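Subject: complex prediction, re-run

Hi both,

The earlier run crashed halfway through, so I resubmitted it with identical inputs.
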Amino acid sequence: MEKLLEILSGVRPDVDFTSETALIDDEILESLDIVAIVSEINDVFNVELNVDDLLPENFNSAEAMLELINSKEN
Amino acid sequence: MYQRNLLDYLRNTARRLPDKVSFCDGKTAYTYAELYSLSASVGTAAARLVGAPDKPVFVMVDRTAVSVLGLMSVLQAGCFYVPVDRKTPSDRFEAMLTQIDPPLIVCSAHDKAKTEELAEGRPVLCIEEAADTEPDTELLTERQLSVLDSDPAYCIFTSGSTGTPKGILISHRSAIDFTEWMAETCGVTENDVLGNQAPFYFDLSVKDLYQTLRNGTTTHVLPQRFFMFPILLANYLDENRVTTLIWATSAFRLVANSGMFDKKIPKSINKVILGGEALQASHLNIWRRALPECKFTNLYGPTEVTVDCTYFPIEREYRDDETIPIGKACRNMEVMLLDDDLHEVPHGEAGEICVRGTGLALGYFGDKEKTDRVFVQNPRNTSYPERIYRTGDLARLDEDGNLVFLARRDDQVKHMGYRIELGEIETAISSLKDVLEAICFFDADNDEIVCEYRGGIDDGELIRQLGTRLPRYMMPNACVCRKTMPYNANGKIDRVSIRKEYFSEKN
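This time it finished cleanly. Structure:
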């Protein structure tokens, strides 16, 4: 989780990713944020998130993103 | 005698196609008859509160059909609208309020409380509440009759280099002339279905608004989240048989790079009209491979010339490394390429794009000095006063007589489709209490605004504090806190060496 939080706060240092659970629903993240987050996740975790993984429910919270990464690593 | 007015488009189409849906957003859909009658209701309430025609009225806009109703209501009241992003940071909103001093702010119900807080005592009109007002046809007619087609229809804010955003005033005449040209050239008809991407505070949306109202199309206001999750976008465009996209090039690029077309191709799309920043052939080719029958058009123009002043229909294949021209001047517009002394440059050489014609803005709201600096006498015309607009963009003519965009003359950049003055970001950062000095530059390869600063706060705190001053799209994407700044012989920050250092470390 730490690695992920580091990525997220690098992209959006103004957001508290430990507590937000509606990053998409509350329009906190914007399109370029998602592009940046996906590219960082792919690099750092050595996974390949593709267009099928880009769904709102996978990005509403740091936890959801971690779940997605774990599912890809497995 | 009745003057030409942008509202005529809605009035005429409401008569012709009363039951057809005009704008919809997933929650709300207005038929043309509804949009017209509701805007007359809200317009009546607005006219009473404003008390006179030809006044600027703020409209807090979102990606909703209600926002369109708000804009039309202001025209009904014989005033001109100033669309303001509902997410505008408070300090920036205050600067806009001080500059324009609107007698009224119009907003939707979910922004009412916040808008009242920001309004500094000005009246706030809630669109949904005012929709029950009995229309006063006599009052609206009286107000509308006093509007000339040379009066402002809207005022759109763009970034300002000295730190304050500037309001660009566009007349009904200019917007109507552009809309008529575009309908004929791009061939939008009532059989088309539009997918709106551009926010209503961005002048690109003027194309969506008035192509819809003029031609009687149905326009789907696409939610922001579609541009993060391309599969949702593709499904929606497909299910709703969307035919026409009038988009910012940045959104076009985002979709091209997303891999969306590998999964789904919305085959109903037959027209894509682009503008807002330079179009890369590599992105175009991804779209063309997916939609080989689709017609693509590249438009160019700053807000000061009423959306666009040149166009280029893309009619041949382009290699990924080829430059796509911005084309030739739109009707009733002329583009000249001039040097610093306003002399025409020889054919094929780089010159500043200077424009004359009906599209020219009335000027910047409340800023004669800035207006006079860029709207200058046509150097070719020594017989009578005639303005041209100096865009600050450099271009050259290619062998086919098409304009090819080269670069900016100054610190203005295009990022996420928005026109941004880096000076405005620097001013905002430098004004923070704990920042001693700051410079910004643009990393075009990575589409990032980079800020290097000296001061006692870390980058997270810097971004947090900037949150009340700058909209999201103006936020630096990379911040470097420096212990020292290099200076040149004149004692100014050495921008060249900072940029060199940054890019050499990056590579």
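Chain B has a mean pLDDT of 94.

- K.
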